[in-house]
Fold:
Amino acid sequence: MENNLQQQIDDLNRKMDLVLELLAKQQQRSEVVEDLVEDLNIVVKDAFQTAVDELAVQNIKIDGEDVRYLVFKLLRNVKTFGELMDMLESLMDFLHDIGPVVHDAGIAFTKALDDLDRKGYFDYFRQLGLLAAEFKEHVTEEDIIRLRESMPAVGLMLRSLTQPKVMNALAEVTQTLSSMEMDEKIDNKSLIGIARQLSKPEVRRTLSFMLRVMGELGKTKKIN
Structure:
């Protein structure tokens, strides 16, 4: 009987020791929390005072009502602020995904510009720009007006020039002229020498064609 009672007392003492130990630990935690709160309070006060001093130096005044309005405004729009953060996150994800595509596109664009430069397109367009500047300098507005008024005749001339047979004839004439030049020994002929040239079939054909052209031009002028 006495042994059972002593055992119960010992158990009770052990439990009391555990309770006291837990209370001591709880007290220790409370002291740590209190110390942390005090430290945070000091830090917050210092930060607030520093902010106040900095605002005073910058000559910035803050109204308490404005601050309270801003706080309440933020609290009322917490959901909107959350949606805004979601949108920013989506935008960042989009930029992260599209970054490689933009990078590859930039490389392709740079390569295309390099190809155009190597092929001389930039120099070509630069010369066109210089040509336009020269045209602007030497062709007046009155010249352009006269050209516009003469467009029917110019159009008719272009239609005639673009005919295949006319283009071929002009090509032959220009090619022949570019390969020939005045020669004092060859071209300084007497009338007898010229008469001998007229005996050649190709010379007669050319003269006959020129005379026929002149005749047609005379008819056209008479009709007009």
